[in-house]
Write a structure and sequence with these properties.
Number of helices: 9
CATH topology of the largest domain: Rossmann fold
Largest sheet: 6 strands, antiparallel, barrel
Mean pLDDT: 85
Low-confidence stretches: 1-24, 82-113
Number of strands: 21
Shape: globular
Helix content: 10-25%
Distance between the termini: 59 Å
Order of helices and strands: EEHEEEHEHHEHHEEEEHHEEEEHEEEEEE
CATH class of the largest domain: Alpha Beta
C-alpha cells in the first residue's frame, strides 16, 4: 500500500485489486482518522468535495449526508456583502481577478455576509460535523448580479437573480475553489438530481424527488461539462425528511425557516434597492388598457411585473392584470386574463445540458419557478434563438424570466424570454 500527500489531498493506492481491511486500518492510522469513520475512495483517490453552505437546513443536512457517503467535505460560505471589519473580524478577502481564490482564515466564528446569522449558523454546523470551513468574499461577483437585477427592472423586464447567481457565481466560482483545494466534486443543498446511470449521453440534470421543492429550473444555466462533478445530496429526499435528518443529527438549524428573500435584499424591498443602487429616476407614466386608452397613472414601471393583479393603482369591475411593460414609453398595459394568455414565446442566451438536440422537438416547458411544465414544441432558430409553442395558452409569460425545457424529468436546457 502507498499513501502520500499532494498538498492536503491524500492519495491511496492499494496493492493489487483488493483493499484489505488491514490496509484500510493502516491508512486510517496514518491519517489519524478513527477506524469507525467511513471514507470514500474513487479509483484509489480519497474523494474531496466542496459544499456551498448557506447556514440553512438543506446545505447543513447535505454536509452530513455527504459524510455518511464517505466524502471528505469542505464547507464554503459565499459572502455577498461589503467587507465589515467588525463583523467579519477582518478576515474576509476581496475576490481577486486571477484563477486562484483566497482562502479565509476562519478561526473566528464571526463571518461577514448578507446575513451574519446565516454565516454563524453555517460555521456552527461545520463545527458540529467537524469539517473544515472557509468563507470567501464574492463582493465583486455579487456586484455583477446586483447590476443585472437593477438594470433588468429598469428595462421593463422581470429578473431572476437566483438563476444568474447559479450561472455566474455559485457553480463556477465553487468549482474554481474546489480545484484550488484539491477537490474533485462540488455540492449544494439544491433539490435536484444528477443521473449518471440512465442516459447514454453522459450525466443528466433531472428534477428532484420532491416536486414541491424541485429547483432544477434555476439550474438550467450551469456548464454542461460540470454535471459529472456536481452532487445534490438532498435531491433524492422530500423536504420533511431533510428536516428530520438534520434534527436526528443534532443540527440546530433543523427547524430554521426557508429563506424567502433575495440574499442581497433581506428586507424584500426590491424597488428601494433599485432606487438606492441606480439612483432616483423618473420612471412614472401612464396605465393604459390594451386599446391604448389611459386608465390611470403609475409612480414607476419598475414596480410592476407581468401577471401582477394586486396594487395596480386602479380598480375595475373584474380582475385586471399587467399584460406588458413598455419601458421606452413608460407605459404599463393592463388587461383581462385572456389578454395575458400566450401560446408562443421567444428566448435567447441559450444553454443546453443535452448535446445533439434537433432543431425541432417536443418537450415540456416551464416559464417560472412555480409553473408546472407545459406541453410544447421547441424550435431552435439560427442556433442561438429559441421559439416555444405551447399546446395550451400559458399565463404570465414574462420577459426577463427563464424558459426551461424538459424531456419527462430531464432538463434539456433553456434560455431567457425576450
Amino acid at each position: 500500500m502507498t499513501v502520500f500527500a499532494r498538498g492536503s489531498l491524500y492519495i491511496y493506492r492499494p496493492n493489487g485489486v483488493h483493499r484489505a481491511t488491514e490496509e484500510r486500518n493502516t491508512l486510517y492510522s496514518r491519517l489519524g482518522i478513527p477506524s469507525g469513520v467511513l471514507l470514500r475512495f474513487d479509483k484509489g483517490v480519497f474523494v474531496r468535495v466542496v459544499l456551498a453552505m448557506s447556514g440553512g437546513v438543506d446545505s447543513s443536512a447535505a454536509a452530513h449526508l455527504l459524510q455518511e457517503q464517505g466524502y471528505d467535505v469542505i464547507g464554503l460560505f459565499m459572502r455577498s456583502g461589503e467587507t465589515d471589519s467588525e463583523q467579519a473580524g477582518g478576515e474576509a478577502c476581496a475576490l481577486p481577478s486571477g484563477d486562484l481564490l483566497p482562502v479565509v482564515n476562519t478561526r473566528s466564528h464571526k463571518q461577514g455576509c448578507c446575513s451574519a446569522s446565516d454565516a454563524a449558523d453555517a460555521r456552527r454546523v461545520a463545527d458540529a460535523l467537524d469539517i473544515p470551513f472557509h468563507a470567501l468574499n464574492f463582493q465583486d461577483a455579487f456586484g455583477r448580479i446586483k447590476d443585472y437585477f437593477a438594470d433588468e427592472y429598469l428595462a421593463g423586464r422581470t429578473p431572476n437573480p437566483c438563476v444568474m447567481c447559479n450561472n455566474w457565481l455559485k457553480f463556477g466560482k465553487l468549482w474554481d475553489f474546489a480545484r484550488q483545494v484539491g477537490a474533485e466534486r462540488i455540492a449544494t443543498g439544491h433539490y435536484a438530481q444528477i443521473d449518471t446511470e440512465n442516459f447514454t449521453d453522459g450525466p443528466a440534470l433531472v428534477r428532484g424527488r420532491d416536486f414541491t421543492k424541485d429547483q432544477s429550473y434555476v439550474l438550467f444555466g450551469i456548464d454542461r461539462n460540470l454535471l459529472g462533478r456536481i452532487l445534490f445530496p438532498c435531491g433524492d429526499y422530500d423536504k420533511p425528511d431533510i428536516r428530520e435528518h438534520a434534527k436526528s443529527t443534532g443540527l440546530r438549524v433543523h427547524d430554521k425557516p426557508d429563506s424567502q428573500e433575495i440574499c442581497f435584499i433581506p428586507d424584500n424591498d426590491y424597488m428601494g434597492f433599485v432606487e438606492k443602487y441606480r439612483g432616483e429616476a423618473d420612471t412614472s407614466g401612464e396605465l393604459v388598457d390594451t386599446a391604448g386608452n389611459v386608465v390611470g397613472q403609475h409612480d414607476g414601471f419598475e414596480r410592476y411585473t407581468i401577471g401582477q393583479r394586486k396594487r395596480l393603482g386602479v380598480t375595475f369591475g373584474s380582475p385586471r392584470y399587467v399584460v406588458s411593460i413598455e419601458a421606452d414609453s413608460k407605459r404599463v398595459v393592463i388587461g383581462t386574463k385572456d389578454d395575458l394568455a400566450r401560446t408562443e414565446l421567444e428566448a435567447d442566451q441559450l444553454n443546453w445540458l443535452k448535446e445533439g438536440l434537433p432543431s425541432h422537438f417536443s418537450c415540456r416547458a416551464k416559464i417560472r419557478y412555480r409553473h408546472e411544465p407545459a406541453e410544447a414544441e421547441a424550435h431552435i432558430v439560427d442556433g442561438n434563438r429559441l421559439r416555444v409553442t405551447f399546446a395550451e395558452p400559458q399565463y404570465g409569460v414574462a420577459p426577463g424570466q427563464a424558459v426551461v425545457l424538459y424531456d419527462d424529468d430531464r432538463v434539456l436546457g433553456g434560455g431567457w424570454i425576450r
